[in-house]
Amino acid sequence: MPKTIIEKIWDQHLIHREEGKPDLLYIDLHLVHEVTSPQAFEGLRVNNRKVRRPDLTFATVDHNVSTQKSRVSTDPVSVKQMTTLEKNCEEFGIPLAGIHHPDQGIVHVIGPELGLTQPGKTIVCGDSHTSTHGAFGAIAFGIGTSEVEHVLATQTLWQRRPKTLQIKVNGRLGLGVTAKDLILAIIAKFGVDVGTGYIAEYTGEAIREMSMEERMTVCNMSIEAGARAGLISPDEKTIAFLKGRKYAPKEDFEEAAQRWLSLATDEGAKYDRTIEIDAESIEPQVTWGTNPSMCLSINDYLPVPEQLDNPEECKAAEKALQYMGLVGGAPINEIPIDYVFIGSCTNSRLKDLRDAAQVIKGHHVHENVTALVVPGSFLVKAQAEAEGLDKIFIEAGFEWRESGCSMCLAMNDDIVPAGKRCASTSNRNFEGRQGSGARTHLVSPAMAAAAAIYGKFVDVRKLSKTVLV
Amino acid sequence: MEPFKKLDGLVFPLIRSNVDTDQIIPKQFLKRIERKGFGECLFYHWRFDDNGNKKQDFPLNNPKYEGASILIAGPNFGCGSSREHAPWALQDFGFKVILAPSFADIFFNNCLKNGILAVTLPEKVIASLQDKAEKEVLHLSINLEEQLIYNHQFSISFEIDEYQKHMLINGLDEIGLTLVHEEKIKNYEMSGR
After folding, report:
1. CA A465 from centroid of its chain's CA atoms
2. How far is residue B114 from each of residues A253, A268, B8, B18, B98, measured CA to CA in Å?
3. pLDDT of residue B173
4. Which of B16, B17, B33 sits opposite A38 (nearest CB)?
């Protein structure tokens, strides 16, 4: 019987199945960071347990780290959390890319970059954006701290077999329209809970056309559509990306590549549900509210709550507009902005920085705007600098920072002040996400760069054709 | 984990949809390395203003809900970040049961691992319970064994996964259960799959 990649990977990792119970699954890779792990390690200590497979576990610091050159955190509580991870890794024998390590970076950037992320793997991390790794054809999902402890102790997890959701993207994206615009448009169209209870597979021409970095952007935001995991069947692009990576197979790479390709969803395989979207119809997106489905095209007008049919939606829109300091009916492209953040596990890879640099080149950041670029990893930063991207950003008036999660969730000092408005390439526009009272608009890197120049949202497609990517 | 069998408690209705875990517990409180003490940070920016004073317009600050242990929430409760600090905060504040039309997947699992009973009920039932809890003072009894939510006026039965029910009622340590399958885990590792 033809199978989806989801069923193939699931079945391969099944350790125990029993009527009326979840499946017991083996976990191939466990990524760990400082915020969601300390209580799990403490649990191990209390119960006198060991980490079963430190060799399948990899840790880094990302959420709290300072992105300043000095890397010195001002908050002693942050420092304690990071040193706690260092101590735990040492005690339990877990490899750690610490703050000054050349492999350090956002956990969802370094996994693929180091070749730890591979097709067919089951990958977990105490972080909901673990779905990112699905871009390689892995079942990758976020877990809570109790589950972190469970995986550390047993290298397994009890999981209900999820339903399968196909998200089919027909046709190709237009010029100046990116992977970020696609995933935002999907969430806007189908809602923030369309994927609840499912693992999603993205299929269709636009997905096949995408680079691995773009695929990671799409899979990253699966959780914003409610799907814990979202993946893409591996193809030649997946193989090419992984070849030569630090932890990718070496002499048996070809053999692994063949095995990986065979995981792709079989012709005729059935999904529990399929939803479709036309790529051609998608325009650059800007979120206007306080969840990612509150999103419109750049040339649209803000919703007028009283005109919405559904009373729930009307109330939610009213609340969101109030929090965002916006008035219904106003055009999106006249919203002035104060901050621009280019970074996060959604959009901080080399391609994202290139996209933004291409727009910003030869221009200057608007006088009302504070703008920063935070590369996703030590390596991304080095590569960008080798290409001279840092100079383009710095000359334009951007701050060029060290890697980390930074202003996506503002756990370090990179905070958007209350009442200020930020064009952000991150993944969540929740109330207070980038700082208490801060107002977030999610956009693509190119759109964020354009907003930095003009001090408001502009349609990146209207800029000179040469800057389009 | 403490077993969950029965509970009699006061209801607090949170009439909002898509409440994300950033709202349940904002990130500035995720830096602690302990499991306890997160209750005071629950719904922080809804409960307190920038000076740390209680906001009068947030219903949880209304004395009539003091001591509430049953939260009735809107659809897609607990979406967003996987932070287990969210159920820790709810539990530390005093909530032991959450009723909602739907939950986000990771949050739902996190509740179970901490002995919080999360129950899905039809949207209409939730709306009517929320309405009652808002207009009056609503006390409910919850019997997990019988799968019943009731008071002196009505009784509602609910569905729950048998495995989850078993875990909650017995307050089981899941790691201990898993280690029963040690042989199978070892065989899997040896097989080089």
Report:
1. 28
2. 43, 41, 19, 22, 13
3. 84
4. B33
DSSP type of residue B34: S
**Chain A residues with CB inside 8 Å of B73's CB?**
none
% of chain B surpassing 90 pLDDT: 96
- Closest Cα to residue A450, out of A435, A464, A430? A464
Query: What is the per-residue pLDDT for A334?
Result: 97
H/E/C letters for each residue in chain A?
A: CCCCHHHHHHHHCEEECCCCCCEEEECCEEEECCCCCHHHHHHHHHCCCCCCCHHHEEEECCCCCCCCCCCCCCCHHHHHHHHHHHHHHHHHCCCEECCCCCCCECHHHHHHHCCCCCCCCEEEECCHHHHHHHHHCCEEEECCHHHHHHHHHHCEEEECCCEEEEEEEECCCCCCCCHHHHHHHHHHHHCCCCCCCEEEEEECHHHHHCCHHHHHHHHHHHHHHCCCEEECCCCHHHHHHHCCCCCCCCCCHHHHHHHHHCCCCCCCCCCCEEEEEEHHHCCCEEECCCCCCCEEECCCECCCHHHCCCHHHHHHHHHHHHHHCCCCCCEHHHCECCEEEECCCCCCCHHHHHHHHHHHCCCCCCCCCEEEECCCEHHHHHHHHHCCHHHHHHHHCCEECCCCCHHHCCCCCCCCCCCCEEEECCCCCCCCCCCCCCEEEECCHHHHHHHHHHCECCCHHHCCHHHCC
Residue in this structure with the two tokens 């104060």, named with its chain if needed: A338
CA-CA distance, A284 to A300, in Å (whole number)? 10
Instruction: Give chain A positions within 8 Å (CB) of B80.
Output: 128, 223, 428, 430
Q: What is the reported pLDDT for B151?
A: 97
So what's the pLDDT on residue B1?
84
SS3 at position B121? coil
B152/chain A closest Cα distance in angstroms: 31
B34/A411 touch (CB, cutoff 8 Å), yes or no: no
Provide the CB-side half-sphere exposure for A275 (13 A, CA).
Answer: 16
Across the beta sheet with B6-13, the strand order is: B117-120, B97-100, B70-72, B6-13, B139-143, B148-150, B155-157
Subunit contact B79:A77, Cβ cutoff 8 A: no
Q: Quick check: A9 and A36 in contact, CB under 8 A?
A: no
- 90-149 of B, contacting A, C-beta below 8 A: 102-106, 109-110, 113-114
- Give the pLDDT band of residue B192 (cuts 50, 70, 90): confident
Residue B143, classed as helix, strand or coil, is strand
- What is the reported pTM? 0.97
pLDDT tens digit sequence for A41-88:
999 999 999 999 999 999 999 999 999 999 999 999 999 999 999 999
Which regions of chain A are under pLDDT 70? Answer: 464-469
For B142-181, the pLDDT digits (tens) are 999 999 999 999 999 999 999 999 999 999 989 999 999 9
**CA distances (Å), origin A187, targets A195, A220, A332, A390:** 10, 12, 18, 32
* Eight-state DSSP code of residue B30: T
From chain B, pick out residues whose CB is under 8 angstroms from the CB of A20.
162-163
